Amino acid sequence: MDLQQLILDYGEWFYPFTFLWTFLEGETFVIFAGFAAEQGLLNIWKLIAAAWLGGFAGDQFYFFIGRRYGHRLLERFPKWRPGVDAALGFLHAYNTYFILSFRFIYGVRNFSSFAMGMSGLRWSRFLLLNFIAAGVWACTFAGVGYLFGHAFEAVLGEAARDVGLVLLAGFLIVIWLGVRAHMRRQKRATAAKAANQPPAT
């Protein structure tokens, strides 16, 4: 498979994929995509826009879920509480600075928007600061990938594009394997649950 030609032919689909992926998580993909953008395979500005909007929309969604269903979800999933408590502690200690930087803090990033939705923080304030923070995040990680691509090109010359393509392909394969493994685990869990249910009388 010629991955370079595949990206050139279907590169426009990478932007909605970036939006969807960053809605859920995404910084690693954005770095690799930034690398590909430096090689001329993707448009860096479209990439940043897709990552910006995806990250912003995702965290607004988690904020809403926390505001609307947070306490009920914590009762159902008590393992989330340490992450939520840590995020709330950062919010109370640093407030605006935390809202602008939580995407960069390993360990609490996944719970932060959800926790802030539970905190009583005004939704309009979170929306504005989240929009700014998502833009900084998208520019940072896409820029890191772009600079890595530039550095690789300076060292490896024409081979840099091949290295970038291999890295991007490897990341996509890891995503695909992860999705497959998750689906298999869900299927086994569903089968085990059905097997443990008493027969209908």
Structural summary, described in words:
The chain has helices at about 5-10, 15-25, 25-40, 45-75, 80-95, 95-100, 110-120, 125-155, 160-195. It starts with a helix and ends in a 5-residue tail after the last helix. Helix 2 runs parallel beside helix 4, helix 4 packs across helix 7 and helix 8 packs across helix 9. The radius of gyration is 20 Å and the shape is flat. The chain is mainly alpha-helical and about 200 residues long. The longest helix has about 40 residues, at about 160-195.
Brief synopsis:
This protein is an all-alpha fold and 201 residues long.
Number of domains: 1
* Count of strand segments: 0
How much of the sequence is in beta strands? under 5%
Instruction: Please summarize the sheet with the most strands.
Output: none
Q: What radius of gyration results from the CA coordinates?
A: 20 Å
What is the helical fraction, as a range of percent? Answer: over 70%
Q: Identify the overall geometry.
A: flat
Structural class: mainly alpha
Low-confidence stretches: none
Sketch the topology as an H/E string, one letter per element. Answer: HHHHHHHHH
Number of helices: 9
Give the termini distance in whole angstroms.
Answer: 55 Å
Mean pLDDT across all amino acids: 80
